[in-house]
Every structure is written in C-alpha cells, then in structure tokens.
Design brief:
Length: 193
C-alpha cells in the first residue's frame, strides 16, 4: 500500500484493526517461543497496539516500527508512563537497519504481513531475515477469513503463502489454524542473504 493510504487512515481515525487490550493470541502463544524475557522484541508496523505494553510487561525490551507519527503520538498519550522505555523507529520498515535494532532476537507480527499486498511480502520477509540474527524467533498472526486474496487490507495470507515466504529463510511451525492462523517462525542458520 502507498504510505499516503496509511497516513490518511490515521488522520481520519479509521483504525478498525486496533484492539483495546492485548491480542488474546499473543497472550496465548507467546510462551511457545520459549524466550527468557530478556530479549529485545521488534514489532514491525506496530500502530498504537497495546501488544507493545504486554510485551514490555513480560520483561522484554520492546522496539516498535511504525510509519505514522499520529499512531505513535496517540500511543504515548493513551499509555502515559506505561509507555516509558519502549523504543520506536518512526518510518518505513524497509528503512530500518539492524544497527538501530538494539540486538533484537525476537519479533511479533500482528496485522503487519497481512497489511501488505502479495507483491511486497517476500521483500518484507527478506528484509526481516537481513536485520534479525540467526535463531531469532517470531510470532506471526495472519488473517484467515474467506475472501478475495487481493481485496485488502487486511489481505488473506494462507498457510501455503506463509511456507512459500519462509522458504530458505525461516523455519515455520503452525500453532493455530482458523480465523487468525498463527505461526512460530525461527530464522534458519543456513540462509545467507
Ligand atoms: C493494520 S495496521 C496494524 C497495526 C498493529 N500491528 C496492530 O495490530 O494494531 C498496519 C500498520 O502498519 C503501518 N504501516 C504500513 N506500512 C508501513 C511501512 N511500510 N512501514 C512501517 N509501518 C507501516 C500503518 O500505518 C498501520 O499503523
């Protein structure tokens, strides 16, 4: 999607994807990553998600990426002191470099991959594999509604799509099928982009 599309949605307050509380699938499945809590977690395309707070509450350093300044201002205003310590990169995910990531070894994607049309998704996964270290673990929550694949956002990304995107870069395990298919991803050692 063009950046203007997202800027306009934030300007008009059309943020129907936003949840008032942490995503139940995050709460349910994050423990399956078997992390210590010390890890820095990258949250690409984070919006003003309460998931950032939940990850911080688990002990993680949290690093959010988001295009919209409005989103980040609203997050800070709505969360107050609870937002302290969460770091942000305000800009295009594709301009985020590994050296500013503060050693992130985990990532969380809810409504990020599915916000991208099919033509952009491989570029996104390749970018993640470049900026994250070998062994980095991610939780990916997609959108499984029965609809036209190119009619979005959100875009339908099915299991075959996820496996194809991961090929050569990430090991993929399906955690849950259904309305919001959820996956555990791990960056493979043998991939040299
Ligand atoms: C569908 S929303 C999901 C937000 C958040 N993950 C959540 O679950 O509430 C997608 C977000 O990605 C942001 N975005 C879109 N393209 C982006 C890009 N190229 N780089 C960074 N953020 C982007 C939009 O501004 C929007 O806030």
């Amino acid at each position: 999607m063009k950046h203007d599309y997202w800027h306009q949605r934030w300007k008009e307050g059309r943020t129907g994807w936003h949840l008032a509380e942490a995503n139940p699938d995050l709460v349910k499945w994050w423990p399956s990553l078997k992390l210590t809590g010390d890890e820095t977690v990258l949250v690409p395309l984070c919006g003003k998600s309460k998931d950032l707070l939940w990850l911080k509450e688990q002990g993680h350093q949290v690093f959010g990426n988001e295009l919209s300044e409005i989103a980040l201002a609203e997050f800070k205003e709505e969360c107050g002191e609870a937002a302290n310590g969460i770091e942000f990169h305000c800009g295009d995910i594709f301009e985020l470099h590994a050296d500013v990531l503060q050693g992130a070894t985990a990532w969380y994607d809810r409504a990020a991959l599915v916000a991208m049309p099919s033509a952009t998704r491989k570029k996104y996964f390749t970018h993640l594999s470049r900026i994250l270290p070998v062994g980095a673990k991610g939780l990916l929550i997609t959108f499984g509604c029965d609809k036209d694949k190119e009619d979005g956002p959100p875009f339908l990304v099915d299991e075959a799509d996820v496996y194809a995107l991961c090929e050569g870069m990430f090991h993929c395990t399906v955690l849950e099928r259904g309305e919001e298919p959820t996956y555990l991803l791990e960056k493979r050692p043998e991939y040299y982009p």
